[in-house]
User: Fold these one by one.
Assistant:
Number 1:
Amino acid sequence: MKNRQILVTRSSMPDFEEYANEIREIWNSRWLTNMGVKHQTLEKDLKKYLKVSEINLFSNGHLALECILKAMDLKGEVITTPFTFASTTHAIVRCGLIPVFCDINKEDYTIDVSRIESLITDKTCAIVPVHVYGNVCDVYEIEKIAKKYNLKVIYDAAHTFGEKIDGIGIGNFGDASMFSFHATKVFNTIEGGAVAYKDKVLNRILYDIKNFGITGPETVEYIGGNAKMNEFQAAMGICNLRHIDDEILKRKKVVEKYRERLGSTNGIKLPPLQANVESNYAYFPVVFDGYKYNRDKMFEILKENNIIARKYFYPLVNDFNCYKYKYSSKDTPVAKHISERVLTLPLYSDLELEVVDNICDIILGR
Ligand SMILES: *Cc1c(COP(=O)(O)O)cnc(C)c1O
């Protein structure tokens, strides 16, 4: 046990034969990318699985987010949170928009909806909230605010693949939602991502933007980029999607074990249970607040035992070297408090329950 390193995550993969079968046709067709048969199949499969009306695939989640922000032709300020992966803010800035950081709430670490209105100015064009760890934002309140001020809402749903709120697929909330299919996510296409949305007008624009803005054999309409998902990525997605429900169920068992073992310990705060949400058990973030060890000490103790947890999200985006000239985590005290105390524990579908027990023993000092 001690010799084997346990990492925070481990990518889900189909059997080698299943993937080999899936990519065999590509050798015959020589259609390797540019929205081929696998791409089309995966789009169709995902629409059905995510219960969304429109979806567009991308080479990764980050470019999916950049492309949808571009496609909506936004200008000005965007309200978002610093308690996220670098990608969310970078996408906003790289699209020429100005991020305005809103604090998170201390219950589920998503955007504090009671603070959004005070940050809205006449320059605000959109809200980019993040569903963190699989915890969903207060989508109903966000919708109310967006309607009142005529703002677009683009969710970073990278952590919430396949989740449902009150039985509705998470990709149906807001104007658009970005999903990441990175190797470390609940569902992966090696690298990959998607945007789900309702407005059919976006279909063509997104398709063109991810393909250099080429709209016809002799016309280039937009200053697009290259963000196409290739056929090998799509084939991996087709295979992984066949097993996704089973993968999520196995994650659930791991999470239940963690909850059972760590649930009633003073100073250890577990992720919230959101009653109206069908979870995907993406992450297991534990907040050490008033426990006998602080987060950094806990991280070291686990590491000495070959358990590699992750300080996720730390540091906060507004403390990154590239942003701290203009922003400060002092303005988002709840996010700062959580980011200094949170540790994301190992969680993946084939993590053995005995290993989870062992991790809990170490945390509890037994
Ligand atoms: C993974 C992730 C992204 C970026 O997705 P990629 O597919 O890795 O480009 C964006 N936002 C969040 C919150 C993420 O976790």
Number 2:
Amino acid sequence: MNVYERLGVTPIINASGSVTRLGGAPMPPEVLQAFTEAATQAVSIEELQAAASAKIADLTGAESGLVTAGCASALTLGAAAIIAQYDLGKMEKLPHCDDFRNEFVIAREQRSGYDHAVRASGARLVEVGCNEIVANAGVRRTEPWEYEAAFGPKTAGVVFVFGRNTVPWLGDVVERAHRHGYSVLVDAAAEVPPRSNFEVILSTGADLVCFSGGKAIRGPQSTGILCGCRDLVASAALQMLDMDEHLSMWEPPAKFIDKEKIDGLPRHGLGRGMKVSKEEIAALLTALELFSSGAYDAEVKTFRGYLETIADAVTNKPARTEILDDDDGETPPNLEVHLDEAALGRTAFEVCQSLRHGDPRVYVSHARLSSGTLVVRPGCLTADGASHVARRLAEELSR
Ligand SMILES: *Cc1c(COP(=O)(O)O)cnc(C)c1O
């Protein structure tokens, strides 16, 4: 009996990609091996995080880095670092910070459920900009000057959610913020691949950048990366690590946390509840090495094969299929299945739900159901899983 059988939980076929709700991406064998090896010996977490910092710096081009409990926790810690910097009194007070600078300027159109992670630090968000294109009321979106116009006596920094189509360009926003000495915190959770985005994003001069470790990087689902400016990463580390130590005996690796810059030892901070285990750190670093080496690229072709199999299975059904390739050679393609809901007599919502309830249970992406479209994201599929998706989809579209 495997562990899920013992627990009475039925595994599913994940055709939705590395979403948190479905447990994220499968970890490669090398990553699982690093996890179990790390579990057999004890290390100082501070020293392990310092080694992680050096590895993250090497692989992303950032000055320093920290393994966090997901990108969401990187956002909380990043905001806390920008608010408190090296001020121990402020660290102690967080998330209560109404009596010091705690406002982050953000484009109104970049707000999402994930900004709760930023607000959890105590930060308050100040919205700017209008997306007149989506509103069908004009031709422009948020502009760099709007960030600058919102800066004031309570400003702590800027939050920016990076995407391939984000407007304005991050570099222009960083320039406006730096003119006034403010830091920029970037949510780039799912923006690699392509690998070149590590450099593209960090070379804008953004002060802190957050990535998910459990999406395309394929580390443990519960990991993330906070990277960027050394002093801010150190502040985040101080607010996350177990700080129960004597100041006289405390020896943090100087490149990671410069003891000279700190006026004493903070107590356990805002991030103490966001701990990351030695096993998770070792596994994430192994996954980051694999990802950065291009070890996953060969699978893009395999994944396309899966999508072709699934598309072929529904050729004569009331649906039109379309494989959307990404030309970076690193990002898996997606399959869109546009249903003829009238001919089927069923909506995409109903078909999606039936797939979830079938045998085996198949979860396709529910992102475009309201346009009558099922999306198959192959990143978490095996050959076996893909043939189940093909068969179940054909069955549903024959009913
Ligand atoms: C997935 C995601 C997150 C959260 O990442 P976790 O690693 O799951 O914490 C944050 N922001 C965006 C835009 C995301 O897509």
